[in-house]
C-alpha cells in the first residue's frame, strides 16, 4: 500500500513540473498545493478502502463486524456514544472494583493453600519449566479447585455474563450404527485427557476454569504476573516462550503429552486445556489445528464457545487488549453459548497419525459449531494487524 501511495505522489509531482516547464505555472501556487493535497488525501482514502475490502476477504477470521468496527476505532452512532458515556461513569468503575476484589480473594486462597508446601519442579532432563502447584492433593487441592470454579463464574458474572447457555450434543445411535469406529466411541467410557476448545477470547479461560478447572499452556511471562502468576501455578500451567524454537521448546511439547497421558490415566490429575488453533479468531472460523494435543493418542473432549452480540463483540481478534477490556466492561450484558460434544475416542489410525486425529476433530467441531474452516494462522494475523495499524496511521 505504501508503494502505491508513493507512486501516486510521484506522478502528481511530475505533472506539476511539466506545467512549470511549459509556462503553465498556476497563478496561485498555494491553492494548487492545497488542491493537490486534497486530491492525494482522497486517493489515499480510496486506496485504503479498496485494500481494506481485499484484506477483509483474505483475513476474514480476524475481521470485526460489530458497531465499533476494525480495531474498535470505528465511528460510533450517537446512541452508542451516549450508552458508552453512561457506562464509563457508572458500570466501568463498579466492575473494576468488584473484579479486582474477586481476583484478590482467590489469590489469598491460593496463597494460604500453598503455605508450607513444596511446589513441583522439573526433574533433571526436563525443559526449564516454572514451579507449579497443580499436583497438590488433599484438602488444599479441593479448596483451590472449588473456590477457583466458583470465583471464575463470579468473575464472568461481574463482566456481564449473567446467563451462559450450555448444550450437549448427543449422537444418534441409529445414525452411527454403520461405522465401527463410531460404535467404539459410544461404547467407550474412558476419561478424556484433554479439553479441546476453539479460541475466541481470554474469556475462554475463565469459562473453562469455572467448568473443569484444567491446566493449560501459557506464556512464560504469565507465571511472573502479580496475583495471576500464583493462580496460574495452582492451575498447573505449562509455560512456553512463543518465540523460542530451541530444543527446550520441543521439550515443552513432551511435557504436554505426558500431562495429557497422566490426566487420562489418573482421575486425580488435572485435565489439560488446549486451544489447538494457537491464536484467537472472531468465532466464525476454525483455524488449522496444531497436533500437540493429539500426540498422546488419548480421548479428547471437544468444546465450542460462541459469543453472540448486538453492539460490542467479546471476540479478541483485531483490537488492543486495553480497548477490549474497557468496551467489554462498558457493555451492560454479554452473552456466551457453550456446546459440549461427546468425548472423541480416536481410532487406531488416528492414534498412529496425530495429523489425521487433529484434522478429524477439527472437521467435527466445525460441522457441529457451524464454523467455516480457514487455512490462515498466526503469521497472517500479524500481517493483518500491521496493515490495520498502517491504515490507521494514514
UniProtKB/TrEMBL annotation:
Instruction: State the family it belongs to.
Output: Belongs to the 1-acyl-sn-glycerol-3-phosphate acyltransferase family.
Give the species this sequence originates from.
Chenopodium quinoa (Quinoa)
Cite the annotated pathway. Answer: Lipid metabolism
**Which residue numbers delimit the Phospholipid/glycerol acyltransferase domain?**
193-308
Q: Which residues cross the membrane?
A: 82-109
Q: What is this protein's name?
A: Phospholipid/glycerol acyltransferase domain-containing protein
* Pfam families membership: Acyltransferase
The residues the entry assigns to the signal sequence are: none
Please note every region of biased composition (Polar residues): 1-11
GO molecular function terms attached to this record: lysophosphatidylethanolamine acyltransferase activity; O-acyltransferase activity
List the GO biological process terms.
Answer: phospholipid biosynthetic process
Instruction: Tell me which GO cellular component terms the UniProt record holds.
Output: endoplasmic reticulum; membrane
Supply the alphabetized keyword list: Acyltransferase, Lipid biosynthesis, Lipid metabolism, Membrane, Phospholipid biosynthesis, Phospholipid metabolism, Transferase, Transmembrane, Transmembrane helix
Principal location? membrane
Q: Note the InterPro entries from the entry.
A: LPCAT1-like, Plipid/glycerol_acylTrfase
Q: Which PANTHER family match?
A: LYSOPHOSPHOLIPID ACYLTRANSFERASE LPEAT1, PHOSPHOLIPID ACYLTRANSFERASE
Q: Where is this region: Disordered?
A: 1-45
Source organism, top-level taxon: Eukaryota
Q: Does the keyword Lipid biosynthesis apply?
A: yes
Q: Report the locations given in the UniProt record.
A: Membrane
